[in-house]
Amino acid sequence: MIILAYAYGDHSNRLFQDLHFSAFCRENRLSYFNPTMLDLAPLYFGIRYNYVFAVLLKIVIKVLKRLKYTRIVEVLNSKDLLRIIGMNKRRMIFVSGGDFRDHAATEKLRRYYSRRYRLIPRKQSMKLTKDCTTVGVHIRRGDYRGFADGRYYYDDNTYRHIIQRMTELLKGEVKFIVFSNEGIDPDAFAACAAHVEISHNAWYVDQEWMKNCDFLIGPPSTFTLWASYCGKVPCYHVATPNASFSLGDFHICNG
C-alpha cells in the first residue's frame, strides 16, 4: 500500500498531489490511501471516505516518524516510485512529494477522476446558469502580492483588458464571471461593455462553477488548472500584463 504522509500546498495543489499519486497507484494496481485529505474529503467523497482510518493513520505516522521506525520517501516521478516499490519489501510505503506527476495516468483516467472529484450536491450553494458563452476570469490577489516578486499580481486595468480582448475574440453574447480569493469592487468592471458577474461563493463552489465555463483565464495558478482538468475547459494563463493572446493559446490541462 502507498500512503501519502504529507500534504503539499493548499487546496488545488493538494488535489493535484492526491490525483497523481492515486492515478499512479490505480494504473499499477496498487492500494493507495491519503490521510492528509481528511479535511477535504467531505467536499468530494462524503461518507465514502474512511475518517476513522485516516485519523488513526495520521497519528501512527507521527508516532512512527518520531520514534524513527519508518522512513517517509519523497518521490519525484513514476519511475522513481516504481524503483522504490521494487526495492521495498514492506507492505506499506510512506511517501511525500509535491512535484510527483504521472500525466499519462491522469490523462487516461480523466473521466474517472472528473467524477471522483465532483463536489457533492449539498456543498453547492447554487449551480451555474449558462445561457451564452461563459468565461471564468480568475483574479488572484492576496498571497500573489509577494509570490514571484508580485509578477502575477495584476491590477484591475489588466483584467479589464482581458475581458475586452475575450469579447473581441468570441464575439456574440458573452458572460464573464469573476472569481477571486479576496473581495472585488463591483464598480471595477462597470465600464466594461460585456456582462460581468462577481462570484461570492466559497473556493470549492467557485471551482465547480469554473468546470462548467467555456473558457478560463487568469494568472498562472493550479486553481484554474484543476477546473480545466476536471471540466475539460480550455484555459489560458496570462504571463504578463496587457498580454496579446488568441483562442489558439487556450489549452485543456492534462493533470
Structural features:
single chain; 255 residues; alpha/beta; Rossmann fold; 2 domains; 4-stranded parallel sheet
Write a compact overview of the structure shown.
This protein has nine helices and nine strands.
Can you characterise this structure?
This protein has 255 residues and is α/β, with parallel strands linked by helices. It has two domains: 2-118; 133-249, Rossmann fold, CATH 3.40.50.11350. Helices cover 36% and strands 14% of the residues. The chain is built from nine helices and nine strands. The protein has helices at residues 12-27, 41-44, 51-66, 78-87, 103-108, 110-116, 156-170, 203-211, 222-231, and strands at 2-4, 32-33, 73-74, 93-96, 133-139, 174-180, 195-198, 215-218, 235-237. The protein has a five-stranded parallel sheet, sandwiched between helices. Helix 8 (203-211) packs across helix 9 (222-231). The protein is elongated, with a radius of gyration of 20 Å. The mean pLDDT is 84.
Alpha-beta classification: alpha/beta
- Strand elements, count: 9
Detail the poorly predicted runs: none
Q: Sketch the major β-sheet.
A: 5 strands, parallel
| Spatial strand arrangement across the major sheet | 7-6-5-8-9
Q: What oligomerization state is this entry in?
A: single chain
Strand content: 5-15%
How would you summarize the topology of this molecule?
Elements: E1 2-4, H1 12-27, E2 32-33, H2 41-44, H3 51-66, E3 73-74, H4 78-87, E4 93-96, H5 103-108, H6 110-116, E5 133-139, H7 156-170, E6 174-180, E7 195-198, H8 203-211, E8 215-218, H9 222-231, E9 235-237
Parallel strand pairs: 1-2, 1-4, 3-4, 5-6, 5-8, 6-7, 8-9
Helix pairs in contact: 1-9, 8-9
